[in-house]
Specification:
Chain lengths: 112, 111
């Protein structure tokens, strides 16, 4: 079945550093969503991408829809301690438009 | 103010018991979902309802039975709880097949 692989699996960075993570699939996606999950909370939608090549920002976060439509990237600039959490990518499954596949997650820890 | 709410937040119960988790959304969405997040944090869809009609029913034991009394509510009833049911269960909602908004989760622990 469809899978979304995220890398890196986890990262420890210093406050102020920039962060890059990606999400790849063996199949094409028409939508990419990026979520952040903080400890003890539900995932919160950060950015939605709908078009190949699209670059969208939300504050210090920038996400890109890869031109092959098989990948997406999320960058965080000038990280701060509250950026800590798990970042998930997600996209609609080919087996049903209402069914979204979630990636394996990138766990981010920021050291002050 | 809460967009998607779930009760209870925590649920600790014995094996073999029956329990329910409730979800409500005030976003006016027509589609609601139940997800299971395991200890490795993998999020997996279980069920989805669109306008009170079941549209996604993944390979889930039939001990799990969702019920949607109206578009704003989706409950999950679990019979004969097993140790392996311990996980965090998330409710989510969306407008049609659009972006999904999640509740805070219910951490279920089966002893």
């Amino acid at each position: 079945g469809q899978q979304l692989n995220q890398s890196p699996q986890s990262m420890f960075i210093q406050e102020g550093e920039d962060v890059s993570m990606n999400c790849t699939s063996s199949s094409i996606f028409n939508t990419w969503l990026w979520y952040k999950q903080e400890p003890g909370e539900g995932p919160v939608l950060l950015i939605a991408l709908y078009k190949a090549g699209e670059l969208t920002s939300n504050g210090r976060l920038t996400a890109q829809f890869g031109i092959t439509r098989k990948d997406s990237f999320l960058n965080i600039s000038a990280s701060i301690p509250s950026d800590v959490g798990i970042y998930f990518c997600a996209g609609p499954s080919t087996s049903g438009t209402y069914k979204y596949i979630f990636g394996t997650g990138t766990r981010l820890k920021v050291l002050a | 103010d809460t967009a998607v709410s779930q009760t209870p937040k925590y649920l600790v119960t014995q094996m073999g018991n029956d329990k329910s988790i409730k979800c409500e959304q005030n976003l006016g969405h027509d589609t609601m979902y139940w997800y299971k997040q395991d200890s490795k944090k993998f999020l997996k869809i279980m069920f989805s309802y669109n306008n009170k009609e079941l549209i996604i029913n993944e390979t889930v034991p039939n001990r799990f039975s969702p019920k949607s009394p109206d578009k704003a509510h989706l409950n999950l009833h679990i019979n004969s709880l097993e140790l392996g049911d311990s996980a965090v269960y998330f409710c989510a909602s969306s407008h049609a097949a659009g972006e999904q908004f999640f509740g805070p989760g219910t951490r279920l622990t089966v002893l």
